[in-house]
Amino acid sequence: MVVREGTGPSARLVVLESDGTRKPLTITEYKELQAANEHVASRAGTVHIDGSPIASAPVSRSALGDEAIAKAGISIEPGIAALTGYNLYRSDDGGSSYSVIASPDSAATSFNDNTAPRNVEVFYYITAVYTGGEGLSSDTVSATIVDVFEGISNHETPEFRTAATNEGTIGMLNAFGGTPGFEWPLGTNQLFEGAVMVGIAPDQVSDGGRVIVAGAQNALDEDFSFTSNVDTVSFTADETIYRASYDDSNHPNGPQADDGPNAEIPLEVVQTSYSYTDADNSGYLIMKIQVVNTGGATLNDVLVGQYHDWDINAFASNTGEVVFDITQVAGENNDLPFEMEFARLFDATGPVPYIGAVPLSQNVFLSSWILDNASEVFPGGASPLSEANKYNYMLNRRATDPFGDPVGPADKSLVFGLGGGADGDATAGTGYTIAPGDTITTGVALVGGNDAADFIANGKAALQKWSDLGNDITVFAPIFTGIGDDLAGIPTEFSLDQNYPNPFNPTTTIKYGLKEASDVELTVYNMLGQKVRTLVSAQQNAGYQSIQWDGRNDNGSKVASGIYIYKLSANDFVSSRKLILMK
Confidence class of residue 177 from pLDDT cuts 50, 70 and 90? Predict the structure, then answer.
């Protein structure tokens, strides 16, 4: 019997002998059969014999004399051979010997090998089984099967130490207050809990953060399950890069929220984390979060974010703020400056260090909150960290005081979300759309700073590194009132803006415009007219400028609460405004 195996350039004719032997049909044998007016392909198409393409027609049985059969050296049985199944062979000794490990039927398109040895290279090939016998072997492929375990990847620079995991938690593996957390400075952990969150609706959020069960928050959600080990991409004196992946398959097994259970989301997260040791880039951890739609339907309104419960120094006196500054990255936004968002927390009794996050795949977050744990996280509060509120916190900014801390110093957390959109949009999107099999890429950086200016500098360095790594930055129109003028280029007149926030604690931003190069003095005075702090004393080029005041005097000591005057002198221009420091 002659059968046709394969399609296209790999198709071939195979002779199945009655004694069980099989061999490919040679061009000589094929021509001899053609001369005997015998078509030998099992279906129409082109096959290859001895490397040459041969146009063949469907089999048509015709009477062959004994002489023709003997001359061809093969036997031709009536009918077309029917495919009944496959034999899958495996070699565990480097390809020296093979044995059948499975014989699936003809409807099978895949097979899961659960018996292969681990951590050694194994080899496979497959054959087709017909009514007339077994076909020739396929090409050989190899694989090395490894065990996958939950794991944690440690990052350490001269400034900080932290970790990422393959189950969607940050700083620790499925624990509250674990190690290393986020140490800044080294040896001092400032993070109680950190988690990645992905949501598509208020009732569909997958994350590794805390969950409210029976009115208590004593457990982590543990929706994510590792699909790979934590793999080392690079580990040198200059950089550390790890990659891991996880999906939502543990969702049914983890604790079920009081406002759940949420439906599982068909996704896989591929997470790559980066840290660097040089002085300019040692103040941040980049987290590249890629979300793959593994389902058969389009995912809409996809939000990607994180939740961090920071306990900086004395946690009961923590506060925070969301600030905006101007940055510029070559090749982004037509090489023009653009607004950048910085969300940070600190200890109000001594704001060192500043720790928080900045967006990288887009210049501003879709939403960011300085959460008051008593009212906006813990059960019993006005707006606890339910599954629905996890989604809401990633989607919408707080209606009142969206960039500040309306409650004041207390136990705090940070939550933020990314939601796509397009360059130039007035908002940062309303969620990603991911078609089946497609992937979206998001990026954030966990950032620290030894003072307010250091935090801003490290955040900008993270954004530049993100671009240097070949990633895109989506730039949205300014969302912070008044910042749009700062992007316009050279002002037509001198100006001194009102500080923001005002009142403030512990830092505020002062912006001013210079229509020409000027000798600039920007000084803070108390109400008695005594100089408190010189913020700027230098010649500066024309353009928009900004500086932050941290509520300290020229000696580095914190000043008392109250009203202060800040005064700008630039060439012949003099202007002053009041600001209020509150504690």
Answer: confident
